[in-house]
Design brief:
A: alpha/beta; Rossmann fold; six-stranded parallel β-sheet; four-stranded mixed β-sheet; 22 helices; about 50% helix; B: alpha/beta; four-stranded parallel β-sheet; 13 helices
Chain lengths: ~475, ~250
């Protein structure tokens, strides 16, 4: 079958509209909201069941958190160890400062292989560096092999979740995409029929494309190994049949020892998919003669990570093992899905990771895309205090705002500056209360409620009434009572 | 037992009936209550919006006002969470040694209302009577920051005449989130719509909580939609007796 791959649309934080605007089309899309809420509820219920059965869940979290923190504090040493061990085992390690460098390294490697096509194991890091459109533009066909990624690639869709990237697509939509792009008439939306269609589409690729690209769930410093967990066996195929494998991994993915997988894999499977163990856990070390890919490259990607490492509060962002438990637990994500975040990393982790990967030059609305409810922190298997990082980033956004000339025309900025002045003296606060009481009188209806406010207030009254201000504040009541008692 | 009441800025301005209920309740239980006239705000709105310097000045003010209090009672779980979770970081970054020491000495004496009743006064039955069907919304800060656990339930279980109905998806945020409710007004409203469905499904007359900020959000939507339900702070239920029923605003 010919595969005229569409240029995969890219979630680019530099171009994405601010979160509140980007969320609107989703909020108005009943199908999308239903798909997202349903998918999340299923995963959440499975996760909750399996977490409850682990009596040592909190101890596992503590151990994993400490291990990841330790790695980040000694990252240079562990990466060097990984490079040494991987090289000794026959792998070749490349270092990429940013996305452009990583893309170029991979393209050069593919050119050296005379590759015109490449098969891929699901990797969000390759989406982060926008690898597919770059390779397509260079004339190299990219073929995703993960079922969800195939749906997105063939449907011209964008990932909306890091573990279940096609979570926003339901099976009748999958049927439509497959029928159209694979040219299958009379395809039913029965999951078995859809899987069979994907299987025959994939089989051809596995058997004919000799070059593969993967991400990495973990890199093991002690042995120079790479670990991939997946559910469909497509990863195992990509690790068996091609003659060349190129692995792209963020520098933070390293673990000290092979044994550390014991803690990590228990947490990852339960947190990510609500399974005791991933169906396929693949580990490979360099090159093994006569078995699997005979040429093996690892591209270690920085792309903003080392600058995060230098900051004490933000550093914990890099503890992330990409399980997506935070987005599954997030009440904001549940309503908006992933695309509103304008990044391949949506949800709470995306809200802290994306702006930092953009060096705080873009995506400044994302740290505000949270009600700070704390559900993300509660489920995080490596205990990333996401609300704490959100607040740190909000602080940085406000500091940028303080330097902007037009800031005084922003009602929110102005309001908060004035509020600070008001709160600094009780008499000012009390005067402001009296003024508000008088000022809001003309907006207050006979029933004592405010139904409509101008400016920022309209953002409140569009869906909520506001009770008119009572005629007596509490402190006025208290003072009157004291007076009476005397 | 002496306690100083920190009413919080929004309760003072918008929900004085909650303050009056706290006074009635605690005085009935024999607490000698005082009210510092200089109080304004804990700084939560500024801290959560990223205005750290401003939040610090409110935090410093709070410590200076209450450093001599025997205990401080606050009928707002999110404000207590602000003090407990965010003040330490603010003082580490912007404060000096003496401020940090004063705060460390004050912090164990700062209580959210249900904590004060259960942990400090060791009372579960406060003698309340509230003959209505009620559902309880566990505000995120009470649930995940303060870990209030079963404290509200132990208090509610003793309220005579009250029929308590379990709210589905109890641990899910209502979507208020302070300035989030206007900065992301539409997303906040979507979260509210989902929460309101759960609340309405209980067929309760009242939705109660230990935080009026969530209730302002929920109650505002109930009023707009003629949902036939009202919101009421738990302090008002606990203060309610046969002789002196809860003040309920129309």
């Amino acid at each position: 079958m010919s595969h005229a791959a569409p240029t995969h649309p890219v979630l680019d934080p530099a171009l994405a509209p601010p979160f509140p605007q980007a969320a609107l089309p989703v909020l108005r899309n009943p199908q999308l909201r239903k798909n997202v809420a349903h998918a999340i509820d299923v995963i959440q219920a499975k996760r909750a069941r399996l977490v409850t059965e682990k009596t040592d869940w909190q101890e596992l979290r503590t151990a994993a958190s400490a291990m990841r923190a330790h790695v980040l504090e000694n990252l240079g040493a562990y990466l060097t160890e990984f490079e040494t061990k991987c090289t000794a085992a026959g792998g070749i390690v490349h270092w990429a400062t940013d996305a452009a460098e990583a893309r170029q390294i991979i393209l050069d490697l593919l050119r050296k292989e005379n590759a015109s096509e490449v098969i891929k194991i699901k990797t969000m890091t390759s989406a982060e560096i926008q690898l597919n459109p770059f390779l397509e533009a260079a004339g190299i066909g990219t073929y995703e092999t993960d079922l969800a990624e195939i749906i997105l690639q063939l449907g011209g869709e964008e990932p909306s979740h890091i573990v279940v990237p096609a979570l926003h697509v339901n099976r009748s939509q999958v049927r439509e995409i497959f029928a159209r792009r694979m040219g299958i008439k009379d395809l039913s939306d029965d999951p078995e029929a859809l899987t069979a269609a994907a299987r025959s589409y994939l089989r051809q690729k596995f058997l004919t494309v000799p070059t593969a690209i993967s991400g990495a769930n973990f890199l093991i410093a002690e042995t120079g190994s790479v670990a991939i967990v997946e559910s469909e066996g497509n990863g195992r195929m990509c690790l068996t049949l091609p003659r060349t494998m190129i692995t792209l991994a963020g520098i933070e993915k390293v673990l000290p020892r092979y044994q550390d997988l014991e803690v990590m894999l228990q947490l990852l499977a339960r947190s990510a998919t609500g399974e005791r163990m991933n169906p396929y856990t693949s580990l490979w070390t360099g090159v093994t003669p006569g078995d699997g890919p005979q040429r093996f490259h690892v591209v270690l990607l920085d792309n903003g990570r080392s600058s995060m490492l230098a900051r004490e509060v933000e550093r914990q962002t890099l503890k992330c093992i990409r399980c997506a438990a935070c987005m599954n637990a997030c009440p904001v994500y549940r309503q908006t899905g992933g695309h509103a975040y304008g990044s391949v990393y949506p949800g709470p982790i995306g809200a802290i990771l994306t702006p930092q990967l953009m060096h705080m030059h873009h995506a400044q609305s994302l740290p505000y895309a949270s009600s700070l409810c704390g559900a993300c922190y509660e489920v995080c298997p490596v205990k990333i205090n996401i609300p704490e990082v959100l607040l740190e980033l909000r602080h940085q956004v406000v500091d940028q705002e303080r330097k902007r000339a037009g800031r005084i025309f922003d009602p929110m900025y102005l309001g908060l500056r004035i509020a600070n002045l008001i709160f600094s003296r009780a008499w000012l606060f009390h005067a402001a209360q009296r003024m508000a009481r008088i000022g809001l009188r003309c907006f207050t209806r006979k029933d004592g409620w405010i139904h409509s406010l101008p400016s920022v207030g309209a953002k409140w009254t569009q869906t909520r009434d506001l009770r008119g201000l009572p005629s007596q504040t509490f402190h006025e009541w208290w003072a009157a009572r004291r007076k009476e008692a005397r | 037992m002496r306690a100083s009441l920190f009413i919080t800025c929004y309760n003072d301005t918008l929900f004085p009936e909650t303050g009056r209920a706290v006074v009635a309740l605690l005085e009935r239980l024999g607490v000698e209550l005082s009210f510092h006239a200089g109080q304004t705000c804990c700084g939560q709105m500024h801290a959560n919006t990223g205005f750290r310097g401003e939040a610090f000045s409110q935090a410093k003010r709070f410590v200076h006002l209450y450093r001599d209090a025997e205990t401080v009672v606050i009928p707002s779980s999110s404000c207590v969470a602000m003090i407990r979770d965010q003040y330490p970081g603010l003082f580490d970054e912007l404060g000096n040694e003496s401020l940090r020491k004063e705060f460390a000495a004050l912090l164990p004496r700062v209580y959210e209302l249900s904590e004060f009743l259960i942990d400090r006064l060791a009372v579960e039955d406060v003698g309340a009577y509230f003959p209505h069907r009620v559902t309880y919304h566990a505000s995120c800060h009470g649930l995940r920051a303060l870990h209030l656990g079963d404290r509200p339930w132990r208090l509610m279980a003793q309220v005579r005449g009250m029929e308590l109905v379990q709210l589905p998806n109890l641990d899910r945020c209502c979507g208020f989130g302070g300035t989030f409710s206007v900065k992301n007004g539409e997303v906040s409203s979507a979260m509210l719509a989902v929460k309101l469905q759960d609340v309405v499904s209980t067929k309760a007359e009242y939705c109660t909580a230990l935080d009026n900020s969530c209730l302002m959000h929920l109650g505002g939507a109930m009023h707009l939609q003629y949902a036939g339900m009202k919101t009421i702070h738990l302090a008002q239920i606990l203060a309610s007796t046969e002789a002196s029923p809860a003040e309920v605003t129309e």
